[in-house]
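Below is how a single chain appears once it has passed through the pipeline. First comes the sequence as given, then the structure the pipeline wrote out for it. We keep one example in the README because the format questions we get most often are answered faster by looking than by reading.
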Amino acid sequence: MAMASSSIRRIPISFLSRTLTRTTTTTTAEAVTGRSSSAKVSDRMVRISAIASSGQKHEVIGLSGQTLLRALTNAGLIDPASHRLEDIEACSAECEVSIAEEFLNMLPPRSEEEEYLLKRNSRVRIFNKHSRLGCQVVLTQEHQGMVVAVPEPKPWDTP
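Resulting structure:
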């Protein structure tokens, strides 16, 4: 026991105060900026309810600034292999979705290109106000709780 106590050295109090000051400075800098990577992601999250062609409801989490197509693809509801993500010029409307009535006014109007593609390639062959291309809907916080229906894939698009 005497040997163990003789090998213990005292740490000068000035060393401890330097270490604490350094730690406090780092913490204070983070508190002043108010930024952390986890806060940014959680602030950008948009929760959407997606109804699959089977009728099953899925909660999909997307990010503000991300397209609806990307969020549905990440959730596994749309096969990424059958789409050229976010490229409207290569689009054949495989990403067509139906938007619930209460969310239609929160979306910008369709572009002429989107209307043309929907009329030409619509799954239901009846152009209606609920039809949108997922690649053209950019998510915002305003879309929290949005309900979308994901139609069955076209047989020729199924891998």
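The chain has one domain: 42-153.

See the next section for the split statistics.
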